[in-house]
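User: Thanks for the earlier help. One more: Cohesin subunit SA. Can you show the sequence and predicted structure together?

Assistant: Of course, both are below.
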Amino acid sequence: PLERRGRVVERRENGMESMTLFEVVKMGKSATQSIVDDWIESYKSDRDIALLDLINFFIQCSGCKGAVSAEMFRHMQNSEIIRKMTEEFDEDSGDYPLTMAGPLWKKFKSSFCEFIGVLVRQCQYSIIYDEYMMDTVISLLTGLSDSQVRAFRHTSTLAAMKLMTALVNVALNLSINMDNTQRQYEAERNKVMAKRANDRLELLLQKRKELQENQDEIENMMNAIFKGVFVHRYRDAIAEVRAICIEEIGVWMKMYSDAFLNDSYLKYVGWTMHDKQGEVRLRCLTALQGLYYNRELNTRLELFTSRFKDRIVSMALDKEYDVAVQAIKLLTLVLHSSDEVLTAEDCESVYHLVYSAHRPVAVAAGEFLYKKLFSHRGPEEEGMPRRGRQSLNGNLIKTTVFFFLESELHEHGAYLVDSLWECAGELLKDWESMISLLLDEPMPGEEALTDHQETALIEIMLCAIRQACECHPPVGRGTGKRVLTAKEKKTQLDDRTRITEIFAVALPLLLAKYSVDAEKVTNLLQLPQFFDLEIYTTGRLEKHLESLLRQIREVVEKHTETDVLEACSMTYHALCNEEFTIFNRVDIARSQLLDELVDKFNRLLEDFLLEGEEPDEDDAYQVLSTLKRITAFHNAHDLSKWDLFTSNYKLLNTGLQNGDMPEQIVIHAMQCTHYIILWHLAKVSEGSSTKVHTLLLSMRAFCLMCQRYLTSVNTTVKEQAFTILCDALMIFSHQIVSSGREQLEALIYTPDSPLQAELLNFILDHVFIDQDDDNNSTDGQQDDEASKIEALHKRRNLLAAYCKLIIYNVVEMNTGADIFKQYMRYYNDYGDIIKETMSKTRQIDKIQCAKTLILSLQQLFNEMLSDLGCNFDRSSSSFCGIKELARRFSLTFGLDQLKTREAIAMLHKDGIEFAFKEPSPQGEGNPPLNLVFLDILSEFSSKLLRQDKKTVHLYLERFMTFQMALQREDCWLPLISYRNSLQAGGDDDTMSVISGYSSRSSSIRTKKAKPASTGKRKLTDAVWMNQEQNVQTPVMMPSPHLTSTVLRDPKKMRPDESYMGVYAMTSEQQHQQLPPQQHHHQTPMDYNRRGSGLMEDDEEPIVEDVMMSSEDRLEDLNEGMDFDTMDIDLVKYTHKDVYFLTSCAFMNITALVSLLSYFAVYCFSHPLKIAERDQS
């Protein structure tokens, strides 16, 4: 029976044959308890058979196809068995059960761990003490954990750590039983002699002795696992293995703190916090969280905290967000344990993370901030009222305002509120206390809020109201709106009702108090957007609505700031909702206000435009302020019935004729006219009776007006005209008829060539400029930086507006050449916009995009020729910059050559034609003027398919003469280099000295490589050659694949270039030439162990081999450590072949280079033989 391969006790269920222990656990259909019970019964009947089953279970769980036979089990040592299993391991795949994907294998891992735990639990009273089963298993797992095979090492480490955890649980139970027995013994012994039972004392002594023996044996087992497995594997080369060790040691310290929670074990967690893999650092933090959560353990952690506190604080800024979140949570637990551990600097490094764009990090930092600043209450605060200025929340709100101001990030109030929302939501929803702080007079001795503090409080209040009503994070923090649960929806409705009831009364009072402060008023006017307007009627709050409308009107009359006016406009828009009964009242108030504004504007404009009179500054200010108000309202309200187009157009036309119109009046007149046309278009789109022809005339007249303003002397006016023109061209492009709006086809407006040229010239003159040219600020360094950022932001918007026209085919795609050629020079400022434009244009038309890219390179080349002349140095910065730009363009085509095949081919075609377009200015026999462009074009050769390289080469030969093919001067190097790039990797690559590289991994890849598909469509020669123009050309000799050493400057040769550096080698081949030792895994952690302090007696060397193996092997199966080695495959020339090649060398350059290549490699490979035959 011992000969069977790892069979568990016969289990026949539903007629199925018996399965191995591995198969039973993998299936997961049987309870783990019953599986273990069956194994124990088998062990009791024949422990060798059962133990063989268990050994094969661990072998098979590692993914090994082999099995340990009874003969091997009897006569071979564990190391010999492991070596035998290693030889039978399947190397074709790196997968094994613990790393395989799928629900079955995910469940297997938990079943595997559960099996080990249940096995120890069921055997804890007898079998584990028989000095056979546990010794065998621990010895096997220790040996497997030292294996070079990753699957063995990973699986056995997991098994050993789970085995250790189960033994720790047994040891804990033994310790508890010993304590109970000791107490019983002491109680019995302390009895008087008459009542003392001596036989019970003897039994208790015997029991205590047995428990002590078992405890000692368990401790020996745990020491064997810890020293044999953990100490080596906690710094394994594989992150998963290291993570397993750290996770389990955290369990041991938490479960049996009396034995494990000391510096001898804590040091491993501290050292591993410096691990290079985020997964391992994460396990360290979660392990420590379990310890710091229990306040009873804090005293044992004091030394560890003092030693590794700085590292934990620094991990709050970890590059892995999950690690940073857990580090902040750990610091929060440390804060719970003692307020004195973390310094002010430590806390400040966490505080600023509440403004992080990553929400989990910000929420964790918000909880830390709340615990530090808000959770401590003194005895004097116990009797405070719940709400109001003098309440506890009032003081906490002040603290929040102070923190917000000290952080100096006043534009990120929404981020602060969102960070504190989960832990301080009740505080942020105490709007009564906030209103009290703003409206009520301070008590005697109380310090009132300053103007900045009131502004910050209003902003925080607005952000809290928005968060309560919208129930999603602010923009930039979160993936979008999520579906709310029923409970969240109810909370949202309750909050909105409460907000309306409170602020319907308080908002008019707040507006009245702060009506002259633009920033405060702008924020306060946004509150009605979140109101439940029905409450104005149901709550009988109409008088407060009237008060609100009066305050809004006063704000409109007092302010001319665009932000304030637009906030008023949006408030009217929110209140003018036809679904509610308050609509008529609000509509009347709005109409009265707009009537007055329009009448005033027309009256002022008539006086302002009177001929022969010079308008004074007061008249201009009145016109501008009224126009600002009308423009702000026209953004959200339809003012078509007032017919403002005529007056605005007249104003703009007068400005063009006279040239002295104030720029702000022109800018707002343009914006207002733009709104007029958009509202007109909205009516036409909805099927209104408005005439399309009227809209067409208005739109074209306005676009022509904006085009004329592009030549204005005022930059701000030109920018406004450009922006509006781009928007109008987008809106009235061919896409206006999409979605079934064919009736708008007459409105399509396509820009003519002069307009396209003016738009492009504007971009070139106002966007692609240096920072200093566009900076006029002299108010100090900080203001200077702020103005630079603002100017850059404005230029980015202008460029984005124009690029949209390219993407949507509003302007010709080839106009993008002037944009694309700026990619490298202005990469930091506009690189993302230009790259996205290239990507979108390629999606629209690959070929036209490629032609645009090559056109941009040609333009740069021509500019360089005009600046440097035709005899420029190819090492000049200008030429190298163009070549680098070509390389960047090449990278944008991606790795799929089939998708970009035609585009790349057309790019080469245009490049070749450009290179031979202009003859040499020195006369016949000299290279064409643009021949050097082929050097730039060669950057795209790697994107050609092999068969397309031949086609491109044939097309190149159409432009070459026989004499060109024979030229080898420096001036012809671009042609030679380009031809070489087209012939590299060809089918007849007979010139290559290095024919291949062999290694185990490369041979496996070769076997699995699919043959090239013969069904792929070929690039027809029609793309390249017109059959009617197919003139007879001389027979061209193939250019050599190897670059002659004569053509290279020895001084420019890199130090690492040997004789083989002369030959053209791919980057992959160069990588394969690296010596194997450069690929070795390095220690994955940096244990900062210098200096005196924690646990130095048990320290290991800082630099150590991560594979703590007894065998000094360099290969690690299935671990990516099989290195490619280079084999020089010599061409087998005989003496006759050499003689033949020598004879042909003077007639054929191919034969000559082949001969030289053979001799070079032969000399390199057989130096001794060459020395012996030196005379001959």
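User: Great, one quick takeaway?

Assistant: The first strand starts at residue 997 and ends at 998.
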